[in-house]
Amino acid sequence: MSGAALGLEIVFVFFLALFLLHQYGDFKKQHRLVVVATLLAWYLCFLIVFILPLDVSTTIYNRCKLAVNSSPAESNGSYVTLAPSKQKCFKPWSYIPNGIMPIFWRVVYWTSQFLTWILLPFMQSYARSGGFSITGKIKTALIENAIYYGTYLLIFGAFLIYVAVNPNFNLQWNQLQTIGIAAANTWGLFLLVLLLGYGLVEIPRSHWNGAKRGYLLMKTYFKAAKLMTEKADAEENLEDIMEEVRKVSESIKYNHPLRKCVDTILKKCPIEYQERMGRNMDDYEDFDERQNSYPSEKSLVKLHKQVIYSVQRHRRTQVQWQILLEQAFYLEDVAKNETSATRQFIHTFHSQEPENKIIQYFYTPTVEWYWECLLRPWFYRVLAVVLATFSVIVVWSECTFFSTKPVLSLFAVFIQLAEKTYNYIYIEMACFLTIFFLSICVYSTVFRIRVFNYYYLASHHQTDAYSLLFSGMLFCRLTPPLCLNFLGLTHMDATISHKNTQPTAYTSIMGSMRVLSFIADGFYIYYPMLVVILCIATYFSLGTRCLNLLGFQQFMGDSEMTSDLIDEGKELIRREKRKRQRQEEGENRRREWKERYGNRDDSTRNRVVHTDQKESSFSETSANRPLSKYTRSNGRSERDRIELLQDAEPLDFNADSINDDPLESDSGR
């Protein structure tokens, strides 16, 4: 099993990152380099989280082996107190051989840092550029990032000059490398605590509110009102941009040097606008540079950038609106079915997507009713209590992890108890649950935050390239300080535990923070205590209230604006529901008509042929009969027969082809 666990987790994490990226990105429409760079950033960050527990268990085994092999005279006090009998020091099932983890962490860490500080910012500008060639996009990206890169080079150059001039500093390359790592981790820790303080409170609260059907329905109405406003704004913006594109397309003719740029812009427009512009465009006229003023290439680049942004935003709002409608209809169905006496879940609308037969077989309407109306609220409440307990433990440990005698951090207590018995499975599970919960609190906040329309992670393949790359940058900057914070909570970092023990391979790559004592003994220890203040602010929704005061509508139960938006959203959902019902009723009527009268044309043709044959035979027989045999009753029966034929063939009647009334012809005859 040596190294097998590492290989399995590497493969599993890759498919996990690929699945999540597929939910948010669009592999077909987005550039391959954007997809690959974002996938690599997400993959490396998730890999660090999943592999770090294996590093901890391997380090504990190495400490045990070192303590057993050391004699009491040579070993220090920590080795003697921690050294068990030789029978207890056995190799864990996930043991990774020496020399692999340092190389692995070095490759993963420096690759992620290269992505977050150099490649991803450059690709952000490249993806957002409106250039028509690769050279033009690269030039634009370099110009936009010149200030970004120049600032870091200026700070680093000033620091090198200060170190070179000051005789008290005698720093080597390893120490300079450690200072660079410390600077990056300090920036990441500053942002980490902010996101962690929000996630520790919001995640348990969101699951607790998830058990309240009325709360979810009111919040969905609120979202519907806000999304409708954004949707209307996106449609209006797209119309304005398309009008500019139409004017440019009509002014620049087929033989103009910039016509290729216009064609590139037209390809990015929606299909209905392309067809509309194609019908109104006359490309057979030659352009005259003296008579008309044509837009420059720079203005076309700006227009191209606006088209990409407006089309992406319009498509995203359309998809989100449909998803929100389905969610609102489903919550209304749950509210109606809670009082159902049959205990079978009845949907107002059938699902538009075909359901899996296996799921449909087991997830029957009765099972769905018990889950949605009875079990699911209690499941969310229990899960919220468990998550809240984890949050309390994290907050307590963040405030007390610097205390080593006595050990107050609960995570450190759990790991040290398992270390005495060398229960490696328990150690790995405890480490994994701890760092996984921390990662969920931080990463979920990254997925939830929205910076106007510049950064927004939207599911169902609606996230633009800029937001995907920005999320990869955030993950790469947050994950290393997150792992260092986890090692500090569990006292696996020698800087925190103050023990002369073998460090983890991850800590050895980070280097000793003693080079910067004010960061190691000050910022890293006392700054995480700020999470208490952030948790309190999040619990009382101080950030939401501030945004609401600034004019950004937020969901608040005691706000008059929120009540108005809820009423507006309820009316929008009711209107869309009636529209959907009318569409389904129309489709049902057409389906019933087709099923009932689907073979009418064939039967009508057969009746026409049969009627012609009967009429011909009748005329032959009547011609052979004497006129005295015609009576009033015979004339009436023939009129009835003709009227029945006319009623049976309303679609085949053609007044132009018939000159005389058949009744009049019979009476005249």
From TrEMBL:
<feature type="transmembrane region" description="Helical">
    <location>
        <begin position="378"/>
        <end position="396"/>
    </location>
</feature>
<keyword id="KW-1133">Transmembrane helix</keyword>
<feature type="transmembrane region" description="Helical">
    <location>
        <begin position="466"/>
        <end position="489"/>
    </location>
</feature>
<comment type="similarity">
    <text>Belongs to the LIMR family.</text>
</comment>
<feature type="compositionally biased region" description="Basic and acidic residues">
    <location>
        <begin position="635"/>
        <end position="644"/>
    </location>
</feature>
<keyword id="KW-0812">Transmembrane</keyword>
<feature type="compositionally biased region" description="Basic and acidic residues">
    <location>
        <begin position="582"/>
        <end position="617"/>
    </location>
</feature>
<dbReference type="Pfam" id="PF04791">
    <property type="entry name" value="LMBR1"/>
</dbReference>
<dbReference type="InterPro" id="IPR051584">
    <property type="entry name" value="GPCR-associated_LMBR1"/>
</dbReference>
<feature type="transmembrane region" description="Helical">
    <location>
        <begin position="146"/>
        <end position="165"/>
    </location>
</feature>
<dbReference type="GO" id="GO:0071875">
    <property type="term" value="P:adrenergic receptor signaling pathway"/>
</dbReference>
<dbReference type="GO" id="GO:0016020">
    <property type="term" value="C:membrane"/>
</dbReference>
<feature type="compositionally biased region" description="Polar residues">
    <location>
        <begin position="618"/>
        <end position="634"/>
    </location>
</feature>
<protein>
    <submittedName>
        <fullName>LMBD2 protein</fullName>
    </submittedName>
</protein>
<feature type="transmembrane region" description="Helical">
    <location>
        <begin position="6"/>
        <end position="21"/>
    </location>
</feature>
<keyword id="KW-0472">Membrane</keyword>
<feature type="transmembrane region" description="Helical">
    <location>
        <begin position="177"/>
        <end position="201"/>
    </location>
</feature>
<feature type="region of interest" description="Disordered">
    <location>
        <begin position="576"/>
        <end position="669"/>
    </location>
</feature>
<feature type="transmembrane region" description="Helical">
    <location>
        <begin position="523"/>
        <end position="542"/>
    </location>
</feature>
<feature type="coiled-coil region">
    <location>
        <begin position="224"/>
        <end position="251"/>
    </location>
</feature>
<keyword id="KW-0175">Coiled coil</keyword>
<dbReference type="InterPro" id="IPR006876">
    <property type="entry name" value="LMBR1-like_membr_prot"/>
</dbReference>
<feature type="transmembrane region" description="Helical">
    <location>
        <begin position="33"/>
        <end position="52"/>
    </location>
</feature>
<feature type="transmembrane region" description="Helical">
    <location>
        <begin position="425"/>
        <end position="446"/>
    </location>
</feature>
<feature type="transmembrane region" description="Helical">
    <location>
        <begin position="103"/>
        <end position="126"/>
    </location>
</feature>
<feature type="compositionally biased region" description="Acidic residues">
    <location>
        <begin position="658"/>
        <end position="669"/>
    </location>
</feature>
